[in-house]
Task: structure prediction
Amino acid sequence: MGRSGIDEMDDWELAGPATGVTTIVLVGRTGNGKSATGNSILGRRAFKSRSRSSAVTLTSELQQVQMKDGRILNVVDTPGLFDPAVHPDFLGKEIVKCIDLAKHGVHGVLFVLSVRNRFTAEEAAALESLQMLFGEKIISYMVVIFTGGDELEENQETLEDYLHDSPLELQDLLRQCDNRKVLFNNKATSITVQATQVNELLKQIDIIIDENGGRPYSNELFREAQERVSRQEDINSGGYSKEEIHHLKKQLENAYAEQLKQLTEMVEEKLRITTEKLEQRLSSEQAAREQAEKRAQKEQEEAGVKIGMLLEKLQKAQEETENLKKQMGSSNKCVIL
Result:
């Protein structure tokens, strides 16, 4: 790699002229429906997808489709890169692979959530990890995809109804994304519904592209992937001897291994920082909950004591009233006599 270090990863910049291909990358927690959404966009079952919480997608994969308007769409599906159980070494390799697949830059990052699941602390951490690894500007290329449109339809709810009481973290994410969001029903059989949701997504992607001068999002790692491919092509077409080709390819492999090593180290460091932040936040939230519970328990105990005292006073007043009635009754008998 040219430069190295944690902070330099935040130096994102716009890539060169558009290639005529639109590339989108699906990210999110395992089980939220990334692969199913990819299949809906492609209009065919290209990615493995099942209704389960364990991962079906084990490595990043690219599929391509030509849309009716003639545009070529690259769709990159990823495993649950930011799931809590993912090892940094695996994450580093998959990020490198994902960058290789999208080497000409990314036009849209689809952050996939499910209306069937609450927006969790783990998803907030995944978003933080994404920002830490690729820089804050990644948000400006993001569209939030909500899967489970069939369930909302069944409950006669709209997406806005669902988001009405959503967690503050999710509301903040949508604000950062300029409210770019699309509801997907990946079980839809109606061609109209299928086309409508894909068209809505492409409309959001076109807004992102237009706001960025028609060019995709790229950074140093993407440029290095492009250079690696270019060097590979030069080796294959440069008229080198077999021995020279072998030597040059070995050099290329070593450079790739070094890049992977540095990226893995960077991922480990950034994940460590993100994990520490998450643990601190969860610890703080837990402490706040415990404090609130103690306060509520104390108030309940105090209220119980007060109620007990009031009952005791009420009982005493009732006894005094009964005694007074008896005394008055005795007095009345004396008068009659």
Observations:
- The beta strands are 13-14, 21-28, 61-66, 72-77, 108-114, 142-147, 181-184, 217-218.
- Confidence is low (pLDDT under 50) at residues 1-18.
- The first strand starts at residue 13 and ends at 14.
